[in-house]
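## Example pair
The file below holds two records. Each record gives the amino-acid sequence first, followed by its structure token line.
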Amino acid sequence: MPPGLDALKHIVVLMMENRSFDHMLGCLDAKHPQVDGLKGAKPIPDSTGAMVPIQQLAEFRGQLLPDPHHDFASVDNQIFNGDMSPTRTPTMDGFIRIYQKQQQPDVPSSHHVAFAFSEDGANNLPVLHTLATEFAVFNRWFASIPGPTLCNRAFAHYGSSFNNVGMNVFYIPPKFKSIYERLTAAGRTSKLFYYDATSSSLEVVNLLQNEQVMFGTFQDFLNACDANQLPDYSFIEPNYKDHADANGAMLLATDQHPDNDVRAGEDFIATIYNRIRNNPKLWPNTLLLVVYDEHGGLYDHVPTPTLDKSRVDPQFVAQPDATQTGQPFHFDRLGVRVPAILISPWVQGASAIPDEFEHASIPATITELFMPNFDNSQRSIREATANTFLKYLTLGAMRTDCPDFN
């Protein structure tokens, strides 16, 4: 067993909001050719038929108003540009056209969904870009379905969204327990850390019906780091909205959801990383994954994959009234590619992971590490067949050159 995997005691997942890979990380391929980024992008049409190049003009806040649509039907159009034929293939060129429909008659600002951040200059992301280049970036981590937040986050917690492709609150069939419930039953520890009482968990309705003890605040997470009392598995949610704290001080949303300020999210990511990195009792035995729940309507050039039939569970079908496309969805293809970074002193720096991942890979990996003999009949086919990421802790000695953010 590699020494990093042998030492591993804690996995921490931070799931941010609604940004695509090309939008956030695509620029990195200019200096890091192993990244599948903007060099693979091609111009896409706007509503006038003009071909618009992908430009590194993204700003921290103010461009993505209104919030680009990312419901199932809109994402289907972004991927297939309106093609509903039985033999269709993903062209990834409907993003601008769909956004312009929200902005009648503003054609120029519809191009903003095809803007990307740059590695150099004023509109770069020093925290995210440094982590992506100093550790391992996933070239093919996709949202679990081509749809919005709640159903995608459900895959991170349950390995499935069951029949759901929207933002409705749903209750989970007893057959499928959340990863937190499974860990508790196995004598392991886990916790979902939401930001605070004002910006609480998006999964509170589904999960709280079973286990209140599985929740904590972000301050609880920081305290656990300082006290060397992290659970085996921690899932962190950002602050979803600007609001005042108990003392009246304004807290900016840190989720990076359009059109919240991306820099606040950068600071949030750095806070979590530093808290682990600067604790010598945590850093050697903790694996941090930073990932985004879905693309938020923002352009990415990599075609969304169709799943192998062995990964498709026939019991789950979203009906046409749910997809709003006139067609059912059999959960047989993934959503748009999102940023994902694997962080540990045992991970090879400046590396890119080529294998295909999705959010079901999160409970699959947790199960592999902490419950290796778990009964696969008690979890979804998607989770049981998902790629896991423990094998990327490959180094024979712990790195001493990892960055620190001041």
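Second record, same layout:
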Amino acid sequence: MFHKILIANRGEIAVRIIRACKELGIATVAVYSEADKEAMHARLADEAVCIGPTPSSKSYLNIPSIMAAAEITDAEAIHPGYGFLAENAEFAEIVIESGYAWIGPSPESMRIMGDKVRAKARMQEANVPLVPGSDGAVHSIEEARQVAKSTGFPLIIKAASGGGGRGMQVVHAEPRLPAAFNKCQTEAGAAFGDHTVFIEKYLEEPKHIEVQVLGDKHGNIIHLFERECSMQRNNQKVLEEAPSPSIDEATRQAICEAGLNAAKAVNYEGAGTIEFLLNPDNSFYFMEMNTRIQVEHPVTEWITGVDLIEWQIRVAFGEKLAFTQQNIKMKGHAIECRINAEHPFKFTPSPGTVELYHAPGGRSVRVDSALYTGYTVPPHYDSMIAKIITHARDRQKCIRRMQRALDELAVIGITTNTELHKRLLANPGFQRGDFNIHFLENWLKQIPS
């Protein structure tokens, strides 16, 4: 096994990876910006190296600094976590060419699935269902009009290199098409350095279902069932659960098989996620693949008993998966609430010093966080400060356990979105599993800010 791994990330995911490494007997190297000198991940790692000033562009996105940190600490492998450089194929190539192990999929898999136009073409070859739309990139407004004639309105224009809910424009009628097309191209170029866009039929009431996959370097690929990720605001996930509360067993088998076929189509190695849109009639379509570990991976770990971070590391080292598809069984239900340092209904950020932090505990409650009393939450990075995950024999028990855990959570000194989660969990529609990706935003419109 590796002797030392560098974690090219920060916050709760860096802490999560450090914990997995410690349990495997692997030494860890944390990297941190000047703003993160006192951060939990820098304290917990065996070694910590400052890689630059506060801005991400000069620290967590600074490839030369990260590689220098790996060199001076004699690290053998690099784990990118999620966000930052996690899906950057160029970074993965640099890591591999420099003689380090890359704890993630091959750069080629990342390139194919990171380019949504190429990804759709590969999925079509693998017979994975696709949303009706353009066959590839759309280069002009005239081409966009031709696609619109065949798909009809509403439609959605997407950046080929997009992600995280950015680079998308929904168009409900032809008069708005030119402005939306130009805006999406401009946003795509500014955000991703790539102006390429494509067009799909806009599904009006879908659920967001994703399938967790795991592959090794020996051709073995399995799925670990699905996650329900429809609780979103501005295309950003707020709460996730596994399994989905509203799909039947036949649909589960079909969507998981499609996810497996998608992963096999790119010879996938490591942990990855295939994202689908599911219609009310149980038809579903491929949306994209995330070639990294997901924020919501703990709910899958709860229901399957598989430590995904551990297996990312083992696969990168060259080990074969120790289980087959038949070994993976689903047990109970799990829910994850993302706790952000922000106003629960205005969604304005709330950085500052944590005067007191008390994490919930008790049976089947897990907290992934880098928070501690006295820590100053910086305003420069993502506002998520903790993930609370509960597990129980069924969904209703799991909801009640999460409600109890949120009641125990105490974060004094900054404002969090805990109250949003409390009200959401008590919502009758949520409790019935009667929702789609617009549920949260529609519900929020009814709540005074």
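Notes on the second record: The longest strand covers residues 221-233. The chain is about 35% helix and 25% strand.
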